[in-house]
From TrEMBL:
SUPFAM superfamilies: DNA/RNA polymerases, Ribonuclease H-like. This is DNA polymerase I. Belongs to the DNA polymerase type-A family. It comes from the Bacteria.
């Protein structure tokens, strides 16, 4: 259907409507308000024009060209866009083929490293190491690939990928360069050459593709900088940029897994699994199966992976269950040991399949270490995530973590923030009792336990303190009774009745009135329909118009988001103070509240002091007047105590 006549007619109606009194008249078919709505509905939106790009570029294939083009830039420009094209995606087996440099009012320089003698690349190395602002998209990849090829891309950085993640944290958005350029610059990038072979002779299409990707970075930086400033997220983005080099190096470093220890652990877990299975079979199987057709068909064993068979066996024992879901089994676990054994068996089976069997498959053939893929803003709160494998999800038990060891001659140094989330809750809520406890050096878990059990703090035993710790960390995020029972059982093998959990919950919020008031304030915001949350340092999370946050999410983000910022500031301080200056010191893991290094034994004491100092300096401005405590240990393995 031709829309042009409709557009002309709509414009006539609009002009006529504007020239008359907009008050309702008796003979009007539509009221003035209805007319406004109709006009808005029928106004035609002009489709956004998207243009293609063919950036001018200069192919650099010899030392003379490189010097002539780069020498004038090194001390005169303030910023440049940078991109790379590589022979593959693995920095341990692939190399950089092209380096593209985009400078304002200049053709893009496409530098072919394969055509230039390595001894003549000094001008490029000087530019990459200069104080100019380096603008790129997903700079972590470029940093790693350049490092493996012998180049150091030094800060300062502006990563358009991370910047857009900061702006859209919490939303499901594509963050590819192609998407950002089309959305913000109205430019269509031709990505057909993206998967082509850059290890051989290069064609014009590949060179143009490389030039285009670099050419859009400077205008994209200009647009995104304005968006950051308007959203008041410049400081958050800068935090991400400041720790970028350290994160790239952490991914290159990898972590060492002792396969001999791992094999022994696997055998031990399999033996535990076998013993549990025999115990379960002894209780679930009834040899006299004449009254139960299904069990008669099963023979003498129950398939523990079959919900149907397990339910039938439980029913025969007089346990009234309709499924084997965790939600249904956990409330019964306190009364039926066989249910606890089944839950333990399942947990053990998951651990064996996910970690004991799966983890060694990720050992890299070149480095002989596990090279996880780290994402700075992998979680919606801004916290780190890791994939292939997920190193942030390694079980906390000492036997598993002792398999992660330092190379010969090295040690592991681990910094762990003490009760950082509780301290942040004390800061966010202003809870006087919590703040006073921390300022006077009291043990908050014992304080909570003393109130739960109506005992003096000095009389609290370790098991009671453990329960106080579980209550503290569970209830600061508003966990309900049912979920609290579920979490306590799954994570800590402590089975509480709903009545016990309810009593603990009531006592917790009576003890910490400031936390209770904070929860009520967030609840009111949630009921009012808010779709935005800020951390204590201004890190933002948003929800789309089609989704609504849960109350737990709104309670969670101010704490988790601030925690993410603290960890990243600590890493940035550590990078500028130590990591960049002493390459033997390697950042290998960032797991929740822990920062883990691998260092030569001879440097251990000095590095431990530096790590502690950086961690405290990162958190102190946010937490003040609440003191910061960081526990730093020098160990032979990650799991040592």
């Amino acid at each position: 259907m031709n829309s042009q006549p409709i557009a002309i007619a709509a414009n006539k109606i609009i002009c006529k409507y504007r020239s008359h009194d907009k008050k309702d008249s008796a003979d009007a078919f539509y009221s003035s308000k209805e007319t406004e709505i109709l006009l808005k509905r029928y106004r035609l939106k002009q489709p956004a024009r998207v243009k293609s790009i063919n950036a001018k570029y200069h192919l650099v294939t010899n030392v003379e060209q490189l010097r002539k083009l780069l020498d004038p830039l090194i001390d005169t420009i303030e910023k440049f866009g940078i991109d790379t094209e590589t022979t593959g995606l693995d920095p341990h087996t692939s190399k950089v083929r092209l380096v593209q440099i985009a400078v304002l009012k200049h053709p893009v320089l496409v530098i072919d490293l394969a055509a230039i003698d390595q001894t003549g690349l000094t001008p490029l190395k000087q530019l990459l190491a200069s104080n100019c602002l380096k603008i790129g998209h997903n700079l972590k990849f470029d940093l790693m690939m350049l490092k493996s090829t012998g180049f150091n891309l030094e800060p300062p950085y502006f990563d358009t990928y991370l910047e857009y993640k900061v702006l859209t944290a919490g939303l499901k958005r594509s963050n590819t360069l192609e998407t950002l350029v089309q959305k913000l610059l109205r430019v269509k990038l031709n990505k057909s050459a993206q998967t082509s072979d850059f290890s051989r002779s290069l064609g014009k299409e590949q060179l143009q593709y490389a030039a285009n990707d670099a050419a859009v970075l400077l205008p994209l930086h200009r647009q995104l900088t304005r968006h950051l400033s308007k959203a008041k997220l410049t400081a958050t983005a800068q935090t991400e940029f400041n720790c970028l080099r350290a994160v790239a190096q952490m991914e290159l470093n990898g972590v060492r897994l002792d396969l001999d220890k791992w094999q022994l652990l696997k055998q031990d877990l399999l033996q535990q699994q076998a013993r549990l299975e025999e115990k379960l079979q002894a209780h679930l199987v009834t040899r006299n199966c004449s009254t139960d057709t299904l069990l008669a068909e099963l023979g003498i064993r129950v398939n523990l992976s079959s919900p149907k068979q397990v339910v039938a066996a439980f029913n025969r024992l007089g346990i009234d269950v309709k499924s084997t879901s965790v939600r249904e089994l956990i409330p019964l676990a306190q009364d039926y040991p066989v249910i606890r054994w089944l839950l333990e068996y399942r947990s053990l089976t998951t651990k064996i399949n996910t970690f004991s069997v799966g983890l060694p498959q990720f050992i890299h053939p070149v480095t002989e270490r596990i090279q996880g893929h780290w994402w700075q803003m992998g979680a919606r709160s801004g916290r780190f995530s890791c994939r292939e494998p997920n190193l942030t999800n390694i079980p906390r038990d000492i036997f598993t973590r002792r398999c992660f060891t330092a190379a010969p001659g090295n040690v592991i140094i681990k910094a762990d923030y003490s009760q950082i989330e509780l301290r942040l809750m004390a800061k966010a809520s202003g809870d006087r009792r919590m703040i006073a406890a921390y300022r006077h050096g009291e043990d908050l878990h014992r304080l909570t336990a003393s109130f739960l059990f109506d005992k003096l703090i000095e009389n609290i035993v370790d098991e009671e303190r453990k329960l106080g710790k579980i209550v503290n960390f569970g209830l600061i995020y508003g966990m309900g009774v049912a979920k609290f029972c579920l979490t306590t059982a799954k994570k800590h093998d402590i089975y509480l009745s709903k009545f016990q959990a309810s009593q603990f919950r009531q006592k917790f919020f009576l003890l910490y009135e400031g936390v209770a008031a904070y929860h009520q304030r967030i609840r009111r915001e949630w009921q009012a329909g808010t779709r935005i949350s800020y951390s204590l340092d201004g890190r933002r999370r948003v929800w789309s118009k089609r989704t609504r946050p849960t109350l737990n999410e709104l309670l969670n983000h101010p704490i988790q988001g601030t925690n993410a910022t603290i960890i990243k500031r600590a890493i940035a301080l550590l990078d500028s103070t130590l990591l960049a200056k002493v390459p033997q010191v390697k950042l290998i893991l960032v797991v929740h509240d822990e920062i883990v290094l691998e260092v030569p034994r001879s440097l251990a004491d000095r590095v431990a002091r530096c790590l502690s100092d950086c961690a405290i300096r990162a958190a102190k401005p946010i937490l003040a007047p609440i003191p910061v405590e960081v526990e730093v240990k020098v160990l032979d393995s990650w799991g040592d105590r």
